[in-house]
Amino acid sequence: MTTPPDSKLQTHLNSCVRCGLCADSCMYYKAYKEAKYIPAAKVKIVTAAYRRFPKKKISEKMLREMVDLLFGSCTMCGRCVKHCSIGVDIPYLVRKGREIVAAMDKVPSSLQATVDAALRSGNNMAIPADEFRDTIQWMEEELQDEVNDPAACIPLDQPQKNIHYTLNPREPKFFPLSITAMAKIFYAARERWTLSSKFYDVTNYGLFSGDNSAARQIAGNLYDETHRLQADRLVLGECGHGTRASRWEGPNWLQTACDFEVLSAVELMGEYIRQGRIRLDKTLNQKIYTLHDPCNLVRNGGLCNELRFVVQNAVVHLVEMTPHGVDNFCCGGGGGNLAMSEYNERRLKTGAIKAEQIRQTGAKVVITPCHNCVDQLIQLNHTYKLGVEIKTVAEIVADALILT
Amino acid sequence: MALGALLLCKMLFIVRLWSLIRAGAPKDLSKPMGSVCKGVVYSYTKAMLPHHKESARLHLPTFTAGLVFHAGIFLSILTFIWFIVTTVFDCSMPQMVTDSCGGFLVATTGCGMAILLKRLFNRELRALSCADDYISNGISSLFQLATAGYLFFHEPLSYYIVASLFFLWLPMGKTRHLLYFFAARFHLGFFYGRRGSWPITRE
Q1: Structural domains of chain B, count
Q2: Are residues A6 and B26, on separate chains, in Cβ contact within 8 Å?
Q3: List of chain B residues whose C-beta atoms are within 8 Å of the C-beta of residue A88
Q4: Complex prediction ipTM
């Protein structure tokens, strides 16, 4: 925090003209119609904080306002950036504001607990290693039943494989069948892969807490584990922010380029389809599907077309939301909001925009390659009585697999 | 006096630019997925058009007024430089050109005033605003009006006072986005281009 501002920070701190045209791009403003939720208001408070911090003290009142606006009223989805008349990178500034809050030890306690759990145990839900191993063993049996092959396996801690695959801890904890789905795809592709029993967590809530030291350590854990396992590729499970953290931000936090390939599960599935390593029968997925674009994979991760390539190969009827792709609305669970119970009510209210988008498509199934989005969409489904199923891309692809 | 203000303005912008250059080009150690070059070109061009930018599409009158207002500011600066040139070299602009420029600047001043009124009367925009917003808009509009006035009535004193104030304010108020706008578009193009999000190829 004491280093002089780089060119990007100098630029964005000096660029906002407070024209207010960003307002309609933000789901918080759309949901509440209050000036404080306009993205430019968030830029304003970060700029003011930068004028003071660290030389002058930030008042308690301002700090409370920063926490509420930067943590509780922004998912860092980046939709406002694309529509800013100048081009101010607002989530970048919000992240910088969160760094100030983190430096003052005022990160919302629920989010901080998630970071602490990851630092302490290797995964953000503090799942004990034995419990994880048991779940994987159970899922391995499920896989064997599903593919009717007693030799099918979910490898753990096996060195010198092509892929070190990672999971969102929500998978072993709440959605273990999504592990089986990806394992089935690996099985069909005859992939050489492994999970780690210690560092399998793809998430990195240091990205959201603003604690660069924690973010660095969590990203480093995955990279070190990939080295220890001597894997050629680190494949990031279906998690938007986790993919962003490890694929894009990690090398910068660690100040080193990766000497192995880092890619997302979506890209890997696309690769398998193109190379003919898996064959899909899309008629096996006959319902009406829609696609929710996770902000960190699509707008901030460049996977808009790749995601559609995979999904369109796996389903017959895909109805896009309006807007979609790089213009999509966040589900409301991003930016660490799903972990911050303090803002549950606000999160569900802002999620109404996504719920209405889903309703308008008439879809029966919502596909999304992000487990945080899955959780938020499940809650929106319940709250707004959408009557849809929520599935990951791997689950849809696994359902369409032709096993030979 | 106005020339001195312009020189001071230039110096302050040079200092700001030097500070940006000294801070270095953006660094990113992740493996790129797209082209920085294409992203930057898109950032300066199509990304700002209404069919790619929702804010412009939804607020077309404000967007258009903003464009015209900014055209007026640039024209006023160019006119100021032209006045200096004509004074030094003892030449003049054809009447038709001065009248056209003057007329256009009256219209651009109108756009600036409309934006200022929107800021004054829109409750949310007013809550977002600070003194800088009113001063920057006011002084930029006044500069355009003064330029138009000078073109029509050849009254130098008030024109050069307003021009001096404008040039002194330019690098200090939010009007400094004259420099940072271009830097921001570059950083945006770099970021999204590298990540393969820009240019948008599908929609």
Answers
A1: 1
A2: yes
A3: 184
A4: 0.94
Q: What is the pLDDT of residues A305-356, one digit of tens each?
A: 999 999 999 999 999 999 999 999 999 999 999 999 999 999 999 999 999 9
The CATH class that applies to domain A279-400 reads: alpha beta
> Best of A3, A10, A19, A26 to disrupt the B interface by mutation (most B CBs within 10 Å)?
A19
**pLDDT confidence tier of residue B32, bands split at 50, 70 and 90:** very high
Its pTM stands at 0.95
The tokens describing A298, both together, are 């699509």
Helices (H), A78-175: 79-83, 90-103, 109-121, 129-147, 170-173
List phi, psi (to 5°) of A167: -130, 155
Q: What is the DSSP letter of A392?
A: -
For residue B23, tell me if it sits in a domain.
no
| CB neighbour list of residue B12: distance below 8 Å, 6 or more residues apart | B171, B172
d(CA A202, CA A207): 12
User: Which residue segment(s) compose the domain that B141 sits in?
Assistant: 2-9+32-194
With bands split at pLDDT 50, 70 and 90, how would you rate the model's confidence at A4? low
CATH 1.10.1060.10 spans which residues of chain A? 7-106
Q: Is residue B21 part of a domain?
A: no
B66 and A24 within 8 Å at the Cβ level: the answer is no
CATH of domain A7-106: 1.10.1060.10
